[in-house]
Amino acid sequence: YSQSILPDSRENLGLVRKAYVAGEYDFLQMLLAQRTYSQTELAYLEALQELHVAALEIEGMLLTNSLQAVK
Questions:
Q1: Where are the beta strands (DSSP E) in 1-71?
Q2: Nearest to 44 by CA among 16, 12, 8
Q3: N or C: which end of the chain has fewer CB within 10 A?
């Protein structure tokens, strides 16, 4: 996401905004580009959350019973 998808989405939004200001695109097209960008950002944040939750679950599994005495 952070290396290609987000930068491409951000660039697309910038281009659409410039086209809107130049009168080449209408307001609806600009709003659609903004929505696409926002959805991309949200998907990235959700993926990060899932990654961190999975990492915490794995860490928790690794620590389970780690303080018990070795027999």
A1: none
A2: 8
A3: C
Q: Quick one: residue 64, left, alpha or beta (phi over 0 = left, psi -120 to 50 = alpha)?
A: beta
What is the crossing angle of helices 27-63 and 5-21, to 10°?
Answer: 160
Instruction: Rounding to the nearest 10 degrees, give the CA dihedral for residues 60, 62, 65, 69.
Output: -140
- Residue 66 corresponds to which amino acid? S
The token pair at 52 is: 């961190």
The overall pTM is greater than 0.85: no
Structure tokens at 23: 């009168």
The amino acid that residue 65 corresponds to is N
Residue 45 is encoded by which pair of tokens? 């944040």
By the 8 A CB rule, do 44 and 1 touch? yes
